[in-house]
Write a structure and sequence with these properties.
- This protein has 106 residues and is mostly beta strands.
- The protein has a domain of 69 residues.
- It contains one helix and six strands.
- The chain has a six-stranded antiparallel barrel.
- It is globular and about 50 Å long.
């Protein structure tokens, strides 16, 4: 059976697109948007399946914050560049977590 992208579906899989085609779709989407969400993985921001979307050029960790219930967390602030040469800035909870991004206007 074929997926929507035209590639063969693995037996028992419920996905509609393969990882490679989903990654190409994400690159197309990031080109046309001013806001985006991706996962922080080392020096890169990736899709949920690990496809590289942006390269992190700087990052810093903010001060420790506290929740009303006594928990604590630190935000990570970063700047990244997409494959089209545009700069993005964002924040998230750190490595392996999602980061909310906003494209910088030059």
């Amino acid at each position: 059976m074929l997926m929507q992208c035209g590639h063969e579906k693995d037996k028992g899989s419920s996905t509609t697109h393969c990882s490679e085609c989903a990654h190409v779709g994400e690159l197309t989407a990031i080109r046309d948007r001013d806001y985006y969400t991706a996962y922080l993985a080392g020096d890169y921001l990736t899709t949920f399946v690990g496809g590289t979307l942006l390269h992190v050029v700087s990052r810093r960790t903010g001060k420790t914050r506290y929740t009303p219930s006594g928990g604590r967390y630190q935000l990570t602030y970063l700047t990244a560049v997409d494959p089209f040469g545009r700069t993005w800035s964002g924040q998230g909870l750190g490595e392996g977590m999602y980061v909310r991004l906003r494209r910088k206007v030059r």
